[in-house]
Amino acid sequence: MSASPAPVAPGTPVSPHLSITYCTQCNWLLRSAWMAQEVLSTFSLEMGAVTLVPGTGGVFEIRLDGELLWERKRDGGFPDVKTLKQMVRDRIDPDRDLGHIDGTKLSTSNSSESG
Q1: Burial class, 6, CB count within 10 angstroms (exposed 0-12 / middle 13-18 / buried 19+)
Q2: What does the alpha-carbon distance between residue 32 and residue 21 come to, in Å, rounded to a whole number?
Q3: Is the bond into 16 cis (omega within 30 degrees of 0)?
Q4: Which of 3, 22, 108, 109 has the most other CB atoms within 10 Å of its CB?
Q5: In angstroms, rounded to a whole number, what is the distance separating the alpha carbons of residues 103 and 115?
Q6: pTM of the shown model
Q7: Over the chain (115 residues), what is each successive 10-residue block's mean pLDDT?
């Protein structure tokens, strides 16, 4: 039986914490929610929290524990999910293999059969 994590008091910051600030005027909520869902699917046990933060003026920023990972204007658009997951992994679990996202292929043996 595994131990459950200790309860966290309300208002206490949880790490790692990913925040996605998106422009409501540009209707980027769905894009932001999809990216958040992808991060949570991959890092479900490691991620402390994922927050969607509404903004205006064309803002689109992704931060991990306050560190700016991606900024739409600075970085030229939006990250693809592969890039986002690799950026998160590189900061919270650098030794983790992301499987097909990293281009890792399972080796298959096509050696001749003995018979």
Answers
A1: exposed
A2: 8
A3: yes
A4: 22
A5: 35
A6: 0.76
A7: 57 82 98 98 94 98 97 97 95 86 55 48
pLDDT of residue 98: 86
Specify whether the CB–CB gap between 53 and 22 falls below 8 A: yes
Q: Give the model's pLDDT for residue 100.
A: 73
| pLDDT confidence of residue 12 | 61
Distance of CA 69 to CAs 36, 37, 64, 87, 91, Å? 14, 17, 7, 7, 10
Helix (H, G, I), strand (E, B) or coil at 86: helix
- The residue whose two tokens read 């693809």 is 80
Element (H, E) at 85: helix 81-92
Contacts of 40 (CB under 8 A, 6+ apart): 47, 50
